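Board notes (copied after class):
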Amino acid sequence: MAVGLLLVSGTAFAHHSMSMYDREHVVTMKATVTDFEWASPHTVIHFDVADDNGSVEKWIAESPAPFRLERNGWNKDSLKPGDQITIVGNRRKDGSTAMRLLKLVRSDGQELDGYH
């Protein structure tokens, strides 16, 4: 039983590691929200980013659990598909279109913090 608990706790620790994100560099993008998953263990923001040529990339941003976001002024209705945002975070090291959310600025100027 002890070995089983160690295996499970190792997996849980690995899940919560942020080592897959490049925390040395911060990226900022203008984006359009396509979905907002208000769920544990992490909320997820799905968004589109258009480049100068009009090509659109689909991105996701991992953010803290709802109870942590609520302390920063978030709620389940903070984002809706179609919302225009500026999103700030750390991109994944593997170059995929995923990031760790540091901050988001809504079109009305409201700033919402993610991870600190």
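Comment from the instructor: Strands lie at 27-37, 43-50, 56-63, 84-91, 98-106, 111-113. Residues 1-14 have pLDDT under 50 and may be disordered.
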